[in-house]
Design brief:
single chain; 255 residues; alpha+beta; six-stranded mixed β-sheet; three-stranded antiparallel β-sheet; 7 helices; 13 strands; 33% helix
């Protein structure tokens, strides 16, 4: 069997120089707040891969956390980390399948028929059933995680690097993430972060992707769906759905 140039190598001196020896680097993402840089590489057999390298201590901690997450959670919508490579002395890189698509922001979702948005949301929700079942909670879930192929009409979840086992107590002033998606407890030191925090993030996902205007004043769903969203995103965790499964059941009941 021929060795795979990305999945059979354990250590390389530098990511980009190595990738250029085994294939064509057709895309690079160099300006990343996460402390990582990434490349898309096409191998001679035509397969395409996404390689993400940590360039800072923060990026290394994030990739380490993500590696643990992907060892416990599997779902067709979640792009998996398949292999990890040591780069130089302290850095690391991970290898994932490449998927075509664009980020499904609220403004790009408006271009989709309502049925397509519902399909995308259902895929996000279903993936988080697997997240919850594995004892993980969503951290830093935002629209940048929604990779949507507008040709195939398929959504994948990417960059779930901050997801972690829960519940846990927040020991910092805030968690990483977009304020548009974050629950109040994610910005309060000493707060408990648990599955109800994930419920809030998913409620905000539904609210934003189903809005037809820039000010969240043109919800495209029904009043029953809006009621589900409003309960999911209540400021007090105890007033929300108890977990992802309860949220998903309530959401599917009003479709």
């Amino acid at each position: 069997m021929t060795a795979h140039p990305l999945l059979d190598v354990d250590e390389i001196p530098g990511t980009e120089p190595y990738l250029r020896t085994v294939g064509q680097v057709f895309r690079s993402f160099r300006e990343q707040d996460s402390g990582c840089l990434s490349h898309g590489v096409r191998l001679p057999d035509g397969t395409r891969w996404f390689v993400k390298e940590a360039t800072t201590d923060r990026g290394r901690r994030s990739l380490d956390r993500a590696w643990s997450f992907h060892r416990t959670v599997r779902h067709p919508a979640i792009v998996p980390q398949l292999h990890r490579i040591t780069v130089g002395d302290r850095r690391s890189a991970v290898v994932m399948p490449w998927h075509d698509g664009e980020i499904l922001y609220d403004r790009t979702a408006r271009a989709l028929p309502l049925a397509r948005v519902h399909d995308a949301l259902d895929r996000v929700l279903d993936a988080h059933l697997a997240v919850e079942a594995a004892g993980q909670v969503a951290v830093d879930l935002y629209d940048g995680a929604f990779l949507y192929d507008f040709g195939a009409h398929e959504l994948h979840l990417i960059d779930l690097d901050e997801y972690r086992p829960g519940p846990f107590v927040l020991t910092e002033d805030r968690l990483p993430g977009s304020t548009r998606f974050m629950a109040p407890e994610e910005r309060r030191r000493g707060a408990t972060i648990d599955r109800r925090t994930t419920v809030h993030s998913l409620g905000r996902t539904a609210r934003l992707l189903l809005d037809a205007g820039p000010g969240e004043d043109a919800f495209r769903g029904t009043s029953a769906q809006l009621a589900v969203v409003e309960r999911a995103t209540r400021p007090e965790p105890g007033e929300r759905f108890d977990g992802v499964r309860e949220l998903v059941e309530a959401w599917r009941a009003v479709l």
